[in-house]
Automatic annotation (TrEMBL):
Function: SbcCD cleaves DNA hairpin structures. These structures can inhibit DNA replication and are intermediates in certain DNA recombination reactions. The complex acts as a 3'->5' double strand exonuclease that can open hairpins. It also has a 5' single-strand endonuclease activity.
Domain of life: Bacteria
Matching InterPro entries: Calcineurin-like_PHP, DNA_Repair-Maintenance_Comp, Metallo-depent_PP-like, Mre11_N, SbcD, SbcD_C
Protein name per UniProt: Nuclease SbcCD subunit D
Keyword Nuclease in annotation: yes
NCBIfam families associated with the record: sbcd
Positions of the Calcineurin-like phosphoesterase domain: 15-247
Known partners and oligomeric status: Heterodimer of SbcC and SbcD.
PANTHER family: COMPONENT OF ATP-DEPENDENT DSDNA EXONUCLEASE, NUCLEASE SBCCD SUBUNIT D
Organism of origin: Salinivibrio proteolyticus
Key words of the record: DNA recombination, DNA replication, Endonuclease, Exonuclease, Hydrolase, Nuclease
Matching Pfam families: Metallophos, SbcD_C
């Protein structure tokens, strides 16, 4: 009897976590609203949390698509949190800010949500002496028996102004080492609270070395590719690292425990082939036991017709040959049309729209490709909304100086851009 009782006591706690990120509520794709798709995802996510009997939901940044999301996006978030509080009152909910989010706006309801055991962390904070407030970023996660089974280091997206680089050597990468210091300090504080049977979990909204970016919808953060973070910023005893920022679900540095879950819906036309998912993570005691992907049902198709650029007459034939099911307007596929041209074509959009007349489809983008023009000339044909600021800077530099910008200058531009975005967040 004594042996049986002892065995029961040493059985490690099982913790079930759902990891998601990059919701981008309020997003529009080439002018088309995504509200219906986002609501369908949130309804689906709620059911997954119930079916999986989840103990915790981790949302690793980019809740919103912009620093000033529409009121409808805030309502959608709050409605989801309220519904979850009713359906799963014991669910631990931890949400951190991303580079698209406004830190101050996310932090505004922090104390109110914390009273309902909902943790929304937009930015790090520091004490009057400049030391990191690690307590605010350490969130206990309880199991179904109400016992603390893990500690989450809920680190939001880190801006350059968040980092302290005093004391670093001249050869140190100040951005990478500044981020490393914040994680090290947070891990040290978490270990002081963590018992041997409790798991350490990290959250981050970062660009990791070897991460695969999508074509247009993401950009390298914290100064560019030369500042991609190495996997060793996370200590080896951290059982799981829940990452956000990259929209393609992927492992980092071939480590099962360090994961991007990816975005739940495609956020650019280039993401139409992604398998969008959330991750169901199981921990046993302090160890990672299992990771499963739960694929998010695609509500709205993204089509590219034809698959490769073709002359206009062939494009029109392909469009007229489409056979599509009748759908409501907000469920109709979004279409990209690549066209091969010798020269700019007058009334191009009108001709393509005429070929699509009566079809239950929404034209999102026409992509012209020119036979006799260079890549730089094609760049000038793109709409400003389709390019990132760094692409414009790089193109201008190449035109004036006939080469790539120096890495230090590129990093300075990225820093200035980040500062501008941060000022707009205030």
């Amino acid at each position: 009897m004594t042996s049986s009782f002892f065995n029961q006591r040493i059985t490690p706690a099982v913790l079930k976590i759902i990891h998601t990120s990059d919701w981008h509520l309020g997003h529009q794709l080439h002018g088309y609203d995504r509200q219906q798709e986002h609501q369908a995802f949130l309804d689906w996510l709620q059911q997954q949390l119930i079916d999986e009997e989840a103990d915790a939901l981790l949302v690793a940044g980019d809740i919103f698509d912009s620093a000033n999301p529409p009121a409808s996006a805030w309502r959608m978030l709050y409605r989801f949190l309220a519904d979850m509080a009713k359906a799963l009152p014991q669910l631990n909910v931890i949400i951190t800010g991303g580079n698209h989010d406004s830190p101050s706006k996310l932090d505004a309801p922090h104390e109110l949500l914390k009273a309902f055991d909902l943790h929304l962390i937009g930015a790090i904070s520091r004490h009057s002496d400049g030391s990191l407030d690690t307590e605010r970023m350490m969130v206990p996660v309880t199991d179904k028996q109400g016992q603390t089974a893990a500690w989450v280091m809920a680190v939001p997206f880190l801006r350059s102004s968040d980092l302290r680089t005093e004391g670093l050597g001249e050869d140190d990468d100040r951005l990478i080492e500044g981020v490393r210091q914040i994680y090290q300090q947070t891990e040290q504080a978490a270990r002081a609270k963590c018992t041997g049977s409790q798991a350490l979990i990290a959250m981050g909204h970062v660009y990791m070395a070897s991460g695969q970016l999508s074509e247009m919808s993401e950009r390298r953060i914290l100064g560019g590719n030369q500042h991609a973070l190495p996997a060793d910023i996370f200590a080896k005893d951290v059982a799981y690292v829940a990452l956000g920022h990259l929209h393609l679900a992927q492992r980092v540095a071939k480590q099962e425990r360090i994961r991007y879950c990816g975005s739940p819906i495609p956020l650019s036309l280039s993401e139409r082939h992604y398998r969008h998912q959330v991750l169901a993570v199981t921990l046993e005691g302090a160890q990672l036991a299992d990771i499963r992907s739960l694929e998010v049902p695609r509500q709205v198709d993204l089509l590219r017709v034809p698959d490769k650029p073709a002359p206009l007459n062939e494009v029109i034939e392909a469009l007229q040959a489409l056979t599509l099911s009748s759908l409501s307007l907000d469920m109709q596929p979004l279409l990209e049309v690549p066209v091969l041209l010798d020269a700019p074509q007058p009334m191009l959009r009108e001709k393509i729209l005429a070929a699509l007349e009566g079809q239950p489809i929404r034209l999102a983008k026409i992509t012209p490709h020119y036979r006799d023009r260079t890549h730089e000339r094609q760049f000038r044909e793109q709409r400003l909304s389709d390019v990132e600021p760094f692409q414009v800077f790089r193109h201008g530099w190449q035109q004036k100086y006939q080469g790539e910008p120096d890495p230090a200058i590129a990093a300075t531009f990225s820093h200035l851009l980040e500062q501008l975005e941060q000022d707009e967040d205030q």
